[in-house]
Amino acid sequence: LDIYVVLEYIEILHLLLNNLPSQPILANPTWMGCFTNTMHICEALYVTGVPVLLVWREEFIFLTMNIIQHVCLTYPDSAVKAVYTENGVAKPFPAI
Q1: What is the DSSP string of 20-89?
Q2: Alpha carbon 30 to its chain's center
Q3: Phi/psi at 37 (nearest 5 deg)?
Q4: Higher pLDDT, 5 or 96
Q5: CB 54 within 8 Å of CB 67
Q6: pLDDT tens sequence across 32-62
Q7: Which pLDDT band, with edges at 50, 70 and 90, does 87 fall under?
Q8: What is the pLDDT of residues 10-27, one digit of tens each?
Q9: What distances in angstroms separate CA 7 from CA 2, 13, 15, one per listed residue?
Q10: Alpha-carbon distance 74 to 68, whole Å?
């Protein structure tokens, strides 16, 4: 799958990102898409047909934006964090 993704990027996206179309291309349903918090990256990916989700704070959202679903982030109080050992010392995995 990795080589397939690289080839699609070279054959399709690289060309489109270097010469952005004037009208958005229909999203490719076989692509997973991505998340971004940068408006110009979101717009560039959108017009090239990449499914993209813009992650922004509510106060930065323009009235002209099409919001399909508002998502509230929640943080669990009792998350179990796994650890790994490095040189005999237990270290937690980084939280995401």
Answers
A1: --SSPPPP-TT---EEES-HHHHHHHHHTT--EEE---GGG--TTS--S--------TTPPPPEEEETTE
A2: 15
A3: -120, 20
A4: 5
A5: no
A6: 888 898 989 999 998 999 988 888 887 888 8
A7: confident
A8: 888 888 889 888 898 888
A9: 9, 10, 12
A10: 19
**In sequence order, which residues have a C-beta less than 8 Å from that of residue 8 and are 6 or more positions away?**
31
Tokens of 90: 């237990």
Task: Name the pLDDT band for 76 (thresholds 50, 70, 90).
Answer: low
96: exposed, middle or buried (Cβ count in 10 Å: 0-12, 13-18, 19+)? exposed
Helix (H) or strand (E) holding 92, with range, is strand 89-92
Which residue from 22, 96, 41, 8 is spatially nearest to 53, judged by alpha carbons? 41
Amino acid at 13: L
